[in-house]
What does this fold into?
Amino acid sequence: MATTEHTPQDGDEPEEMSFLDHLEELRWRIVKAILGILVGAILCWIFIDQIINGVLLRPIIAINNTLGPGQQPIRLQNLKPFGQVFLYMEVAFVGGLILSVPNILYQIWAFIAPGLMPKERRYIRWIVFFTSFCFLAGIAFAYFVMLPSALQFFAVFGTNAIENNIAINEYMSFIISVMLGAGVVFELPMVAWFLSKLGFLTPTFMRRYRRHAIVGILILAALLTPGTDPVSQILLTIPLVFLYEISIGVSAMAVRAKQSGTTS
It folds into this structure.
């Protein structure tokens, strides 16, 4: 069934849509988001060897190259039949998901757009840009800061009588979970902006409960860093505290913008 999609432009009044129209709009937004993931996964599959060898395995190779005499290198093993096949497929899917984050965010905001004021709809592209930037910044921070320190701690800890042989799927799960987790928590300023615009959060509230938030950040860092590696926990806690302070400023800006829009 052919459909005509209408995304409100600046200054347009949102058209009245029935419940079925909303469902149809949601369906097409989901389809476009899934297509974006598939396109990204296909693109990652084309360069899958470069992604596996040049990106995901590079941290462990770099750590092994820095080990001194008598220190055992970390060895990766495939323990399942067709294990590498499924591993490559998983990496391609996760890579496609990461590449399509801007498209996914745009589809979400485009679906919400008809319910926003004309002034608010003008900022959708900027919202998508900064949300995507925060997510990718979190992934970059995890890859270049958290993972090397965590793997270095793991490589030199313990006795040489025990070999560090890791199943490749466990290693990849560790790498992917840390990067995606960091990407999500780096969205804190955008979450603060959104909740402040809705009236659920204020900078006064965030300042009052700053100490409680720091305790929560420590717990969150412990949950997001696998194992008991204190180095990774500290490295994740520091930027989270910094992001919380930024979120207070972002919340204040959102509240001021909301108040000025109400009085104008």
